[in-house]
Structures are given as structure tokens and as C-alpha cells.
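Morning!

This is the sequence you dropped in the shared folder:
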Amino acid sequence: MSSSYGRAVREELRPLTRELRHAIPDVYRGYRELHDAALQTGTLDAKTKELIAFAVAVSKQCDGCMAAHAHSAVQEGATPQEAAEAIGVTFLMNGGPATIYGARAFAAFNEAYVAETGDEPPR
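The structure's back. C-alpha cells below.
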């Protein structure tokens, strides 16, 4: 797979985020604590929580969130089929826009999957 959608989005946002983080470090520190608390394993495992965040990112049409949670979901062991099914739920909840952002999210997920596992996603 030659797509670099997810990586390109993360790289584009990295310097912008860094600049804002330097301007409001306490806010970012608080957000990081919330992020870590919300995504830690509890009754739901971290993979499931990342897939939920991934699906919400599609619903919110947030390219940066889709790329970040695609990457994290793969690191937690999510498969392309699990990502596709999570995206499918966003179609139900969001209609047409989810078909566009879902395709972007799936490209980011598959890119992260290949980078992490070295395997091509099943077609």
C-alpha cells in the first residue's frame, strides 16, 4: 500500500500542535491526563477504546483524530476488519459524510497496520 494519508496528516499537524502546546502547556497537560485516563484498560480493553475513539473521529470529521486513533488502534492490536466494522457503525449514525471520512480513516488505519505489522491488509 503506497498511501501515506495518516502519516501526512500527523506530520502536518505536529509542528502546529507543538507551537500551541508551548503556549498553553497546562491545558495540554490536563488534556493528556484525561486522554490517558479515558483510554487505559478497564472493563473495556485499550483496543476497544481506541476503536471507539477512531469511530468518533470519523463522526466528528477530524482528520488528525482519525490518523492518531488509527495508529493507536493498530498498536493495540486492532485489525483492518475491526476498523472497517467500527467505520460501518459511523455510516449508521452519520450518514453520507461518514462514507467520505470513513474512507479517509480506513486509508489511515491500513497505512498504520502495514507500518506496524509489515502485512498487507486483507482485501
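Headline: The CA atoms of residues 54 and 69 lie 5 Å apart.

More detail when I'm at my desk.
O.
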